[in-house]
Amino acid sequence: xxxxxxxxxxxxxxxxxxxxxxGRLVAIPTETVYGLAxxxxxxxxxxxxxxxxxxxxxxxxxxxxxxxxxxLSFVEDFDERLLKLAEKFWPGPLTLLLPKKNTVPxxxxxxxxxxxxxxxxxxxxxxxxxxxxxxxAAPSAxxxxxxxxxxALHVYNQLNGKLGYILNGGPCEVGLESTIVGIExxxxxIYRLGGxxxxxxxxxxxxxxxxxxxxxxxxxxxxxxxxxAPQKKIxxxxxxxxxxxxxxxxxxxxxxxxxxxxxSNVSNNIILSPDAKTNEAAKNLFAAIRSIDDSNAxxxxxxxxxxxxxxxxxxDRLRRAxxxxxx
Length: 327
Ligand code: TXA
Ligand code: MG
Fold this sequence. Notes:
30% of the residues lie in helices and 19% in strands. It has eleven helices and 15 strands.
């Protein structure tokens, strides 16, 4: 690994474009989380993403583009049910699994026949994508297994020295990774819950099936049971009850809307949404986990949100964050 790269941060689209054309890595803002991008059609560029993230090669990357027409240049066909979703929700937090053309190298899809594709809703990144003659492969811009970054500083703090440029587009509006959708047994299927709610998808597509692995399924590593994990132990449950089980410990609390600061052993309390809105909670979740992970709290206690809207995806991430293997 070459640690001599100087990582700059700024809003210069031309600079980002030049580096990407040279086969280098650039972090890009999206409405979901920041991505670590490279030319999706160039295997020598894509391999750098895996190296910088310490990501296993069996974990496929999402390819970002700017229009359905541009997407059609690298996929074989576009199922009409998925096309309807694309027309409704792109640009937006929706990734579609589509059969790839041979121009998409195997390393990008980890050898799978389908490629994950999305058009992100972020003005800077859309301009960048339009200016390039190739789409961008971009996983979340964090070391493999850690929480996704929702601002430019999160990227810098963990990947400084491993990429040339961070395109700074401010804090991410949605704050959770995209929802991944494809066709399974001729039915519309959700493979990863994310920033587009199941309710919104079902309004367009009717009842969908869920194929969200809770085990360690190597075919869908974004869904590995212990993923999105902080360094510290995170316990999810009834916050008051869990606190009683850990007397004498400094506790960091991430709560949906209630305040726990009056408890003497609470060293930090981040409230995700004082108005109890799941969208606002989603936007704040990953920054909250990072900030408590970096604080002097010895353990983190959080709670599940209602299973509706983005609450489902938030609960999925909390559950995976709590399932750290090496604790
Ligand atoms: O919102 C997002 O999706 C962000 C931004 C940057 O677009 N990206 C993101 O990428 O979350 P990543 O790599 O952290 O998660 C992508 C996950 C993979 O781990 C895998 O589970 C799934 O998407 N995936 C990608 N391509 C796939 C494919 N061809 N078949 C099945 N699953 C795929
Ligand atoms: Mg990721």
